[in-house]
Amino acid sequence: MRWSQDKSRRFQELRAAESQGALADAERAELSRLLEDLDADEADELRPALEQAAARAEDLAAEKAQLLAQAGALSRIVAEQEQLLSDATAYLRMLRERSSALAEDYRRLTGRDLTSAR
Question: Which end of the chain is more exposed for a tag (fewer CB within 10 A), N or C?
């Protein structure tokens, strides 16, 4: 840990002098080094949280990819089910037309309805 009570006190002194425009070059350099230490300490403190956030982002990206793949597969299944229903509806329509044609042929040949002949 780079930051300490002494550095904090010195930092406050230098900031106060800076606000009054009374910093010498050496003090300005010292203030700059103190700011670098403060930034480095903050970066060290944030590193675990940033690493955890990055890992979580990776996990979420992997989950998103998996869900997108699953959504694609489900969309394909839905499309195939819709086509199956369309095919079945068309086939049923064709069967009803054939049944009606056969019933009409039967009626024309026998003079009776096919349903009453059963």
Answer: C
